[in-house]
Amino acid sequence: MGTRLGALVERLGGELVGDANLEVTGIAPLTDAGVSHISFLSNSKLRAEALQSKAAALIVSAADDAFIAAGYGGARIVVKNPYVYFARAAQYFEALTALRPAPGVHATAVVADSARVAPSAHIGARVVIEDGAVIGEDAVIGAGCFIGREAEIGEGTQFFANVTFQARCRIGKRGIIHSGAVIGTDGFGFANEGGVYIKIPQVGRVVIGDDVDIGANTTIDRGALADTIIEDGVKLDNQIQIGHNCHIGAHTAMAGCVGVAGSAKIGKYCTFGGAAMVLGHLTIVDKVHVGSGSMVSRSILEPGQYTGFYPLAKNADWEKSAVIVRNLSAMRDKIRALEKIIKTKTENEES
Amino acid sequence: MGTRLGALVERLGGELVGDANLEVTGIAPLTDAGVSHISFLSNSKLRAEALQSKAAALIVSAADDAFIAAGYGGARIVVKNPYVYFARAAQYFEALTALRPAPGVHATAVVADSARVAPSAHIGARVVIEDGAVIGEDAVIGAGCFIGREAEIGEGTQFFANVTFQARCRIGKRGIIHSGAVIGTDGFGFANEGGVYIKIPQVGRVVIGDDVDIGANTTIDRGALADTIIEDGVKLDNQIQIGHNCHIGAHTAMAGCVGVAGSAKIGKYCTFGGAAMVLGHLTIVDKVHVGSGSMVSRSILEPGQYTGFYPLAKNADWEKSAVIVRNLSAMRDKIRALEKIIKTKTENEES
Amino acid sequence: MGTRLGALVERLGGELVGDANLEVTGIAPLTDAGVSHISFLSNSKLRAEALQSKAAALIVSAADDAFIAAGYGGARIVVKNPYVYFARAAQYFEALTALRPAPGVHATAVVADSARVAPSAHIGARVVIEDGAVIGEDAVIGAGCFIGREAEIGEGTQFFANVTFQARCRIGKRGIIHSGAVIGTDGFGFANEGGVYIKIPQVGRVVIGDDVDIGANTTIDRGALADTIIEDGVKLDNQIQIGHNCHIGAHTAMAGCVGVAGSAKIGKYCTFGGAAMVLGHLTIVDKVHVGSGSMVSRSILEPGQYTGFYPLAKNADWEKSAVIVRNLSAMRDKIRALEKIIKTKTENEES
């Protein structure tokens, strides 16, 4: 179940210093690694731990290697970015042991006659696939998933168990959707007549690019008239809500519990910390980074790091500060009054 | 797949100015509309776009029509509230093309003998319906839904795929529950004995009125002893959590990610922005509007708009302001000290 | 369907004052209780309601009983902690009427040959259990659940309908997982190479202790290399997100919508109010209580109550205070300037 160091380096690159025939069985953090593991040094502050590691081989940068080489007895794989190399090496080891679901349609799946399922795709137990849906080559649809009418799932995309993917939505290649995610539910659109809500039919789709990951129990609404768009390489964590007609640019990542209201337009290469919220109809340009627990209530037109949450304190201290926050305009008025008095005094003294 | 303008107006009202025999195929925003579309002008600021629209017909208010009539060559439907009319027209077009699921029980559904399913109801693939449940006429239960023992689903109510509706809960007529929603799970009720939690059985129900929409992955807990109540016309977006024994008044709407803790009593015609939170056992009167990301920590006994979130800033600026917020009482003390000094000085000068 | 008071007290303890042969059918709040109900007085402020209660018997503390005995005609059960006793009595009544699902595997369940299901376990309709999974004695797996490869479910643990429990994860004895919860999804782990995310395989597990309750639509990510750990007696409400490699100490409770980012280490006997958020890689010691809507952005190394949310206000007032919060450093500078002027003046006067 392992591999030779040489085989790994042949596949992933990097400069191997040590025995190419050494057998390694997996990857582990510096302090947990055993003698058959590879480990990695992605943070120079951990050099001391690296020297103590029992790992058979270390993934290191050239800068760190100068230091490590002297004191570490194992093999080294010298690479440009040890953390990226670690990710690829971990993928390599996982591929050695992962159980790839067999192609074919489980006997308990309910697949409409007009659906097109590629021969190499795996359709799990209890899956339901409705009319006209298309499942690409090597796609994996886990047990209990629902694929609506005319939905399209691209090549090599994997749905874990119990995903709901509504009618006419589409996702590209090599995507992952985790369990409990719901893609393509109706957006929250109503007209209000005398206090009573009249539903606006949501007839757009959700259109998702390639290499997109969507977390567990995340929800993405279909567009009202136009589509909700998720571009290539977007990574969404669990419990995220994306409203109708949003547009999320390529390679943007959102941590758990983020909410984005309808028609927000978010740029490429952005990041959103956990539970960040974005109001509707805003524009956020490329390379904006919003901190956890922060509410974006206006468009952000300049790249950079933005934050806005109330600092945590002992409850008694918070109560004191919160009372003052509530009355900050009174405090401002007091300062203005003081400034005025001082000014008058000063003028009197000078006159 | 389209309709004549005259047929639309006959059904929905409004004053048609133009050719009643014109064929239209759907509805689209002003700038996207093609020559076979209807569009609508619900915001007078968009008058210029309306004049440029290629739409075959425009839905306009009388006030806007005075302006539009002069410069727009297509037909006009003059109505009181163009946005409400748009919603109804969109429903009209959707009804022309929507695939209404056929009545009957799918062969793979598991329906208890003692359950009563109306003949006109649709029960999808893999649905499970337990003992004594009642499914009303024209109800649609999507694939993979679970309907617990003695639950009741009203006439014309639709569940999308993979809804969980627990024992003894009920929903009225014409409701919609989206995928992944869980209704009637146990409330979070425990007694604590020496640090260890003892579960309090949750034996109430969730009782939902007519015309209620519930979003994807939203959860509503059953009551502990009494019931959790959702009145008529309530609209809940995705990812909302409603605790046990809450009471939500008619025609109240909540945007995504809202949380309401147990036993909160919320009035009618309220609105809650995304990720607003309400603590337990509070009372909120009718017509209260709570902004996104705001925490309601006390009862609100006066209608109006309420807000409370930390304003977003560039991270460096936020760090500065957050440090001061944390120490606002020190700032207040400094101001008091200054006031005292000034007061003493002034008194000295005057004496 | 009821019980004799004597039988209840024999089972649960407490001192009965009154007729042991009295038949009671259930438990109800003071004001709702009818003549066949037991009620409870857990808050001395409700003594007046207790005296008016129609309940056949009251659960009271010794302190309250001195007061109640004089004016209340029904039976009393005098106990140390009436609320805990209420919880146990409610469990007792529920057990009398609860429909215990029958042992056995439903005909529509898909159970791998290599899975081991205890004979006393109940496996509901449409359940999927994959290779090598182990289901303990008296476990109840509700309809539509998915149990991944080599997962382990302990004795007496109950999954409500539509739970997803991924490969190799485990939960101990007497646990409850509510509908829509997803346990063991991949953590949100990526290396970033030139703006593009490279997935880090998540090969750890979720390991859950005994007596753990997990709410509806809650998600817990599996560890990246090591495991995510949930210790005994933890209670998680609905819509919670726990990131990969978190460690949550025994008997900690979290209310709805809480989010905990990856690798956070949380102590025992902590509580988290609704929508509280914890950043990644933090440490929180035992007996920390975090208020609702509060963001924990640093480690908490001292037990106590912590809070941090922006106080709600009428929108117009919030707008005023928010503008000032944004510019607090300007206000601080003004105060400093005033202090300096005053200081100079005072020095001048004294010189």
TrEMBL record, chains A, B, C:
Keywords: Acyltransferase, Lipid A biosynthesis, Lipid biosynthesis, Lipid metabolism, Repeat, Transferase. InterPro entries: Hexapep, LpxD, Trimer_LpxA-like_sf, UDP_GlcNAc_AcTrfase_non-rep. GO terms for cellular component: membrane. Its EC number is 2.3.1.191. It is an enzyme of class 2 (transferase). One of its GO terms (molecular function) is UDP-3-O-[(3R)-3-hydroxyacyl]-glucosamine N-acyltransferase activity. Pfam families: Hexapep, Hexapep_2, LpxD. Residues 21-91 form the UDP-3-O-[3-hydroxymyristoyl] glucosamine N-acyltransferase non-repeat region domain. It catalyses: a UDP-3-O-[(3R)-3-hydroxyacyl]-alpha-D-glucosamine + a (3R)-hydroxyacyl-[ACP] = a UDP-2-N,3-O-bis[(3R)-3-hydroxyacyl]-alpha-D-glucosamine + holo-[ACP] + H(+). Homotrimer. Belongs to the transferase hexapeptide repeat family. LpxD subfamily. Catalyzes the N-acylation of UDP-3-O-acylglucosamine using 3-hydroxyacyl-ACP as the acyl donor. Is involved in the biosynthesis of lipid A, a phosphorylated glycolipid that anchors the lipopolysaccharide to the outer membrane of the cell. This is UDP-3-O-acylglucosamine N-acyltransferase. It comes from Duganella callida.
